[in-house]
Here is the input.
Amino acid sequence: MINFKTSDRAPKLMLIDDNAGEVIILKAALKKISIKNIEIKAYQNPVDAVERLKMLSETAEGKKELPDLIFLDLNMPEMNGSEALAILKEIEALRVIPIIIITTSAIEEELEKCYKLHANSVLQKPMDFDDYVHMLEITLKYWLYVYHSVR
Here is the structure.
C-alpha cells in the first residue's frame, strides 16, 4: 500500500474530464494500487472546475481546500483542456499545483502547446487497464510524494 501524506491531511486530487467513466476507472485504479488516503473531486464540466478553483484561490480558507494535483483531460466540449490550463496557470495561487494533462491524443502540436502553457506533464491515456494503473502509480508517487516533499 502506498501511503501518501501532504502535511497532516490526506492529499487532494482533482479530475477534470467530461467522461463520467474516467472517475470510475480512476477509483478502480487507486483501489488496485491500494491507495486509500486520498480525496478525489471530479468535474465533468471544465468551466465549473475552473470557476471552483478560482473561487477557492481567492481566500485563505478556500486555499486550504485546493487540490494537491489536477488531472485534466485535453479533449472536452465547451472548454478544452488547454484553454482551462491557460486560465488556471494565470492564477498565482494555482501555479504551484501540478496539472497533468491526460489525453488519448498523440498530436505533437497539441502536446507541445500544453507544455508551452505550463502543464507539468502530458500523459497519453493507456488503453489497457493495467498500463493505466502503472502510469497512475508512478505519477502519484512522483507528484504527491517526491514533489510535495520538496515543495
Notes: The two ends are 23 Å apart (CA to CA). Residues 32 and 133 are 7 Å apart (CA to CA). The chain has a mean pLDDT of 88.
